[in-house]
Specification:
16 strands; Alpha-Beta Plaits; 31% helix; alpha/beta; Rossmann fold; 2 domains; single chain; 8-stranded mixed β-sheet; 9 helices; 331 residues
């Protein structure tokens, strides 16, 4: 990049002011150039998102008029005031998204994807605009649960999420063959998560729900280090082995100072259709134990219901079961 281009961009950033009196230049990262593309990040901590999006549009327009770059990217970042420290880096603010909920466990096979889907349906039924991103890179199941296939189209170099049942969805499952084995290491995984979250045109959403994978590895660290998470919902089953793994995951989220809304115990009991009697299938009391040990709320206990299993296998509309989450108060 020539000195002239660099000076022009810095001059634009110096002359543009935010409502708190700071300049865009004082809140911007170094300029990064890749061929005919240029970009930098803008820290919008303490600034309303609407104002930040407006100033970003002004920046891009001014740079377009002053230079010949083909693509100009301004990534909005932010740090929560009540979580920031002097050495904490700013986190990415996903354009157009209000709150981000993460459904997590640390244990596989506990029903995270089903509960993430139920949560999306519940919020949608409450009149909220909802999106769901499948962050389980190695075993994406959200596309099947929403009966969606095909690759997202591109709009201004961003993916347009697919939609069904009034909920917008993106997943690595749309970009790979259903039977393909994905064996990526950390850097590739982090890049995929960034593309799914930040390089997707989510439009205007009240809530974005992240369906996380099992464990506490690279995917979780990439999300926690780079994005603001408003609430985590932990999912367990009654068994001791699930309780152990979920407790490890709780410790990770607390380490990153991420608010945990509470714990859902899935597969807690089975209701005999003829008698209405509830019986326990599995031993243990994982939900109550995790809630007690970590000073969390036990949000609800969900039954084993063959009807839900059939609906999930068919990719059917799960809104008929969203009443199961009615006792949960969502912020």
């Amino acid at each position: 990049m020539t000195i002239t281009k660099s000076n022009r961009i810095n001059e634009i950033r110096t002359n543009l002011l935010l409502s708190d009196g700071t300049t865009v230049q004082s809140r911007s990262s170094d300029i990064i150039v890749n061929g005919s593309n240029v970009g930098f990040s803008l820290d919008i901590s303490g600034i309303e998102l609407a104002e930040a999006e407006s100033i970003r549009a002004q920046i891009i327009k001014a740079i377009q008029e002053a230079t010949d770059f083909e693509k100009i990217s301004v990534v909005l970042t932010s740090t929560r005031k009540n979580q920031s420290t002097s050495n904490e880096k700013a986190k990415i603010q996903i354009e157009g998204v209000g709150k981000i909920f993460l459904v997590a466990s640390g244990k596989g096979g506990v029903g995270k994807s089903m509960i993430a889907s139920l949560l999306a349906h519940k919020l949608n039924a409450d009149g909220k605009k909802v999106g769901i991103v499948d962050a389980d890179i190695y075993g994406p199941s959200i596309p099947h649960l929403f009966s969606l296939k095909g690759k997202p189209e591109l709009d201004d170099n961003k993916m347009v999420p697919l939609e069904n049942y009034g909920i917008v969805v993106n997943s690595i499952g749309f970009l790979t063959e259903p039977s393909a084995s994905i064996s990526w290491r950390g850097p590739m995984v982090s890049k995929a998560i960034y593309q799914l979250l930040s390089l997707t045109n989510w439009g205007k959403l009240d809530y974005l729900i992240i369906d996380s994978p099992p464990g506490t590895g690279d995917i979780h660290l990439s999300i926690l280090q780079n994005y603001i998470i408003d609430q985590v919902i932990m999912v367990t089953t009654p068994q001791k082995i699930s309780e152990i793994d979920v407790s490890r995951a709780v410790s990770l989220y607390k380490k990153f100072n991420v608010p945990i809304l509470g714990v859902i115990e899935n597969m807690s009991y089975y209701v005999i259709p003829k008698t209405g009697e509830s019986i326990s299938i599995f031993t243990g009391d994982g939900g109550n134990k995790i809630a007690s040990d970590h000073n969390l709320d036990l949000l609800t206990k969900l039954p084993i219901d063959p009807r839900i299993s059939i609906a999930c296998d068919a990719g059917a509309d799960l809104s008929q079961f969203s009443y199961l989450l009615d006792t949960i108060k969502l912020p």
